[in-house]
Amino acid sequence: MAKVQRQTMPELISQEIQNLIEERGLKEGDKLPSVEVMTQLFGVGRSSLREALRYLEAVEIITVINGKGIYVRDVDTYRFSGKIKIEKEKRFLLSILDVRRALEGKAVELAAKQITPAQISELTACLEEYRKLKEAGKPTSRIDLNFHKGVMKAAANPILASVLESISSLYERFFNEPLGDGKLFDATYEYHHTMFAGIAAHDPEQALAEFNKLMDCIENIIRTY
What we know:
This protein is mainly alpha-helical and 225 residues long. It has 10 helices and 2 strands. InterPro entries: GntR_C (IPR011711), TF_FadR/GntR_C (IPR008920), Tscrpt_reg_HTH_GntR (IPR000524), WH-like_DNA-bd_sf (IPR036388), WH_DNA-bd_sf (IPR036390).
């Protein structure tokens, strides 16, 4: 059974503001009630309301003009839902990316110290398959995931493997065309090779440096999407 996601107060308020725009039929350029009026209307504190307004302004639904008021910027319902969905997905992926950096980064260091010749051969074959799929223009998300799982296996730390497995469903979101776009895999392709070179050479410092470049690339794509 799926868990019910809890919404924060600013998220709930931002939804109420969107409902208000729709219910009143407000259009682009129309003025919303003042902060004072909306705190009373929704029965919330000023700080929570202002956070909700900052969020709605960030996703271009409203415009706040100091000394003048709050104005509707976009009233297209489809674009409303699309922007909200993408913004939430970006925040989610960035939060999980922080955890991934810590856990998988440690796995990369351990793998560089402990990888066996047989595991080096397995990862070499994995990257060769990755190359063939990429050059053929075929999806590479599954082979990408297999590569990272191979690195974790080479780390040979059952506790770390158990922790990573416990968040596997969240971790694998990165390998399901995050944000509906597969460009992430092409952008990070080269770092799989440079990271593996460090692992195969038993050089934890090089391997971790290249892993962090891969993570930086993913983070940049998510933030600028």
